[in-house]
Design goal:
This protein is α/β, with parallel strands linked by helices and 431 residues long. It contains 14 helices and 16 strands.
Length: 431
């Protein structure tokens, strides 16, 4: 079944207030979500495969749109990290299409029975996964979020209202147009994936205030965006504020392993939230100079405490603010600590509870670190750059959650569902 794309679904109406626009789109999304809930697993998977095909077929249009955004970003002085997030090429666009197909291949969480029980009176209870409803995604310069969010929301039975940043406006519109055409070709409701058609910042406020219309907000972007969302939202929020990730090299770490992990955790991609921002080195670790030398040779600026600065004259003195800074750049804070307890204390004080790692050959120390570090992701002998839904086998992710309610860590399909109780009786009445 093919459905034509209705160009009147999203565009703003002349004179329409941001509040009216959000309400109109949200109501359309809620209607689409009810229709989406009736699509079976093969139908949703086929719709995503169709969207992937449409995106590949639109490569020239998407890359041309992205070139406009990149040129504008350079002219406006966007940082290297922001431009890296923004830029698309054939390989990156192909990876976005591949991610759509990977989500299509994942098991459908909707309808999954979490548990069952039977009461003494014969009532049979079960908890069943269901979609959350209409999800609002507010994001900045990553055009891949347009496709990732659409895929994850649709696969989990949710409709989505997307509000991308002005930096990627042309890219987002081109990707969205391709996705909607592919979804409609496979019979999915058009309003299941909507992109806000204006960059008016008042729309963000309207989305945050849309309690009863939007069921959950997911912000993807810098600290100022996430802080605003968390402060102003009247809708439940799933987010992390900072990615201040630590790697602690224990005294019993292998020097070669520690060097490789530290280099990758910082320098593989400096602009992602799983990038290491602070390196803690045990005072008894014998390979400290080798580790910092590799980082310095890779053109990473190191800012250290007094003992770290003594390791290499190229290390600059750290300020008090450096320990709480998410650089998203080739800059790293380095501290020398006296053992595991001191490392745990530093992480507890300065971590944003995103991802923290230890490098050690001591199994007992590793287990203490796993158990005592209160972060969404805790790692042993691995780079923090693995803090990603795809690397966890979850497919594309909607984001990383560092809170303690509903979902934590990489949020993919299961994190976009809630549950309801189903109660089956045989005539029971309560005495």
């Amino acid at each position: 079944m093919k459905a034509s794309v209705n160009p009147a679904v999203n565009p703003a109406v002349a004179g329409e207030t941001p509040e009216a626009l959000v309400e109109r789109m949200a109501r359309a999304g809620r209607i689409a979500q009810r229709a989406l809930a009736l699509m079976d697993d093969p139908g949703k998977a086929a719709a995503l495969r169709s969207a992937a095909s449409a995106l590949r077929a639109s490569e020239a249009a998407v890359l041309a749109a992205n070139a406009l955004d990149v040129a504008a970003g350079k002219a406006n002085g966007l940082s290297g990290a922001m431009l890296d997030r923004l830029m698309l090429d054939p390989a990156r666009l192909g990876a976005i299409a591949d991610a759509l197909e990977q989500v299509a291949a994942l098991p459908d969480p909707v309808g999954q029975v979490i548990d069952r029980s039977e009461r003494p009176n014969g009532l049979k209870l079960s908890r069943v996964r269901v979609p959350i409803g209409l999800i609002g995604i507010i994001y900045e310069s990553r055009p891949n979020v347009t496709a990732d969010a659409a895929a994850l929301c649709l696969r989990s039975g949710n409709a989505v209202l997307l509000r991308g940043g002005s930096e990627a406006v042309h890219s987002n519109r081109a990707i969205h147009a391709a996705l909607v055409q592919g979804l409609c070709n496979a019979g999915a409701p058009e309003a299941a994936v909507q992109l806000v058609p204006t960059q008016d910042r008042a729309v963000v406020g309207a989305m945050l205030a849309a309690a009863g219309l939007i069921d959950m907000i997911v912000p993807r972007g810098g600290k100022s965006l996430v802080a605003r969302v968390q402060a102003d939202a009247r809708v439940p929020v799933l987010a992390h504020l900072d990615g201040i990730c630590h790697t602690y090299i224990h005294a019993a770490a292998d020097t070669e392993m520690a060097s490789a992990i530290a280099l990758n955790a910082k320098m593989r991609r400096t602009g992602i939230c799983g990038s290491m921002e602070t390196l803690l080195i045990d005072a008894q670790f014998p390979g400290a100079q080798a580790v910092v030398a590799k980082l310095l040779e890779s053109r990473c600026e190191l800012r250290g405490d007094a003992r770290a600065c003594a390791l290499d004259p190229r290390i600059l003195p750290a300020s008090a603010n450096d320990w709480d800074c998410e650089y998203l750049d080739a800059i790293l804070s380095v501290a020398v600590v006296d053992g595991l307890d001191a490392a745990l204390a530093h992480v507890a004080q300065h971590s944003s509870h995103h991802t923290d790692a230890i490098v050690t050959s001591d199994a007992a120390v590793a287990e203490r670190f796993l158990n005592e570090v209160d972060s969404a992701i805790v790692m042993v002998n691995a780079s923090t750059q693995f803090a990603d839904g795809g690397e966890f086998g979850l497919g594309a992710e909607i984001g990383i959650a560092t809170g303690r309610l509903h979902a934590r860590g990489p949020v993919a399909l299961e994190g976009l569902t809630t549950y309801k109780w189903q109660v089956r009786g045989s005539g029971q009445v309560r005495p």
